[in-house]
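Q: Got a minute? One more chain.
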Amino acid sequence: MFTGLVTDVGRVVSIEDRGELKRIRIETSYDVKEIALGASIACSGPCLTAVAFGQQDGRNWFEIDAAAETLARTSVGQWKPGTRINLERSLTIGAELGGHIVTGHVDGLGIIEARTDFDGMSRFEIRAPHELSRFIAEKGSICLDGTSLTVNSVEGDVFSVLLIPHTLSVTTWGDRKQGDKLNLEVDLMARYAARLMQAKD
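A: Always. Here it is, folded:
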């Protein structure tokens, strides 16, 4: 489980094809001595498993294996050396829950339709897959590329979020532009509420 509060911005160092798998090495500022083999790390949204870690040229890195399902349903398949990634380690008991409950299970890909910059902030208009738009509500929470955000407005399949200067500077959002695809995870409570209503009917 995660909160959607990004704690590091990593960088893809290398990608190795291993049949239907891709072994991806990610450079990080995390202390690799504190990363357990098999630990879950949210990498721009998807919850991925650390399968190796170490240091090279004074820089820390960990590796993940991305399987066919992850490559097909998320933006991981589009990563290349140099790609910057929002990182968050999994919650520990007693940790502050500052964002919202995030599972790291990506529901689909959103597409940035517009970006408007003003007063150091940025407003993004994002189109969600039609089948997911019913889970997105004004003032509700949403996780985009591993970042917990508040939905400002919703119109059909398009919703907007506002990024403050701090978030733009400590995540990959400052790099985002029209046409970019984003890993999207809807709010868990909205999903369960919809399921309960469906069962009631």
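A: DSSP finds three helices and twelve strands in the chain.
Q: Perfect, thanks.
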